[in-house]
Every structure is written in structure tokens, then in C-alpha cells.
Amino acid sequence: MKKFSVFQAPNMSGGKRTKEIISKTVIYIFLILLAIIWICPFVYLLIQSFAVTYESNLLIPQEFTFDNYIFLFTDKTYPFWRWYLNTFCIALIVSVLNTVLTLVSAYSFSRLRFKTRKGYMKVILIIGMFPGFLGMIITYYMLSSIGLANGMPSLFGLILVYTSGCVMNYYVAKGFFDTISRSLDEAAMLDGANKNTIFWRVIMPLSKPIVVYTILLAFTAPWGDYMLASVMAGGRTELMNVAVGLQQMLSKEAGTQYFPVFCAAGVVVSIPIVILFFCLQSYYVEGVTGGAVKG
Prior knowledge:
This protein has helices spanning 14-48, 67-74, 80-111, 117-127, 136-145, 153-164, 171-178, 183-190, 195-203, 208-223, 227-233, 242-251, 259-279, 281-289.
């Protein structure tokens, strides 16, 4: 009697094999085309950042120069370095605060059981359905009434607004914490650990993917924000972030003249985000999926 190994792949007929090859080829071609469409704007931005002058009818400039990058940090009319520093400080502070508050809230909803738990989760879900810009004007007037919307305090007002709604992003982190075995909590409690100790010393070391995922989201949100930052800046150049400042650069009469400088600024602004995603890509993907069983 002929024996078959359980690990032996079944024989595939020629028709099925041909269909599989064709389907995979179509999928790969589609993904390649999609990748090209996504990367074309970035390539165009990089090329134009080295252009001497902007010519709308040419995809590749006739002359190249590095002066656009030097102009960013030496020009006094457009203080790009100040905008960049404002954005980086706000994003850094917000990423730390949001990460701590989001993970603590997610852990509470995942592990603790209290009467208003489901009610809070439903309310947060409903509130999250409304776009944030609906309350932008009233938020500005509320911050203005407590002195956080004029002058330098407006930067602290931005941090307050970016941080205040971070709890509504607990869903992914809660789903990740749900996959971590509760037996770890019980074992730690038998050793005399409280909830605070369990969270920081037991759960957090096992949750690097979701921590990285939360940090990346919290950092990129204020990094590219324009609407709220524009309202809070009030037209004052020294209070702008990079998004608002660069828009002001192109809105002037000499917008075409500054377009290569604008492209250079776009390249510089994208560098921290690109570095973060490349270095933390594996953690980010695992944090999004969050399906691994921890034990």
C-alpha cells in the first residue's frame, strides 16, 4: 500500500496552476502600479527641491542646485527653522502624553470591570464619529478665555487640544491588551503586585508593538496638522508650524519663485517620519494586527 506524507503538497493540475500564476501576476502588476502612483509625488518633490527655478511645463529641471536647502535655514523672511522647532517640540510632547494616556485608558477598559465601563466606551465611540473641526471655533474661544490662544501660550493650547482627545484612540490598544493572557496578571497579583505594577512591569514589556504604534500615530498627527494650527497661530509667523508656514510661503505673490524652496522644505519635513517608520516598521505592523497570542 502506497503511503503519503501528511506534509506532502497535493498535486495541482495544469489548469489550476495556470490560473494561480495568472492571478498572482495580475495582483503583482496592480500592486506595482499602485506603488508607482504613490511614489511619483515624492520623486517629483525631491527633484524639484534641487531646481534653480520652477517651470510648470518641465518634470525635470534644466539646472540643479543645493541652494534651496541652504535658503531654508538662512532666510529671515520665512523662519523655517522656527516653524520646524515649534512642530517638533509639539509633536514630541504630544506623543509622550498621548501614548501614556491612551495605553492607560486602553488597559483600564481591557482589564478592569466597573459599572460605567460599557457606557464610557459607547459614548467615546459616538463622539468619535464627529469630525474634530466641527468644534474648532468654540475650542479657540474656550482657550482664548483662559489665555491659551494668544502669543506663545497658543503653543501650549495646541498641546492641550491634541492631548485632550487621545483617549478616543484606545480601541486598537485595547484589542492588543485583550490578547495578552490574564494569567500573567493573576500570577503577579499572587506575588503581591498591584494594578500599577502589573501594567508597567508585566504588560508594558510585552506590548512594544502597540506602544510603537501609538507613539507613531501620536507623533504624526500634530506634525502635519494645518487647520487648528492655522487658527491658533492667528497669522503670527513665529507661532506657526511647518504646515501653516509653508502654506504662507506659497500664498504670496512670489509663490512660483519659492516653489523649489517649498519642495526642499517638504523633503526636510518628511525625514523624521520616514526614519521613524523605517526603523519601527515591524513593530508598527504587529501593533496594527495585534493578533499574536502572548503567554
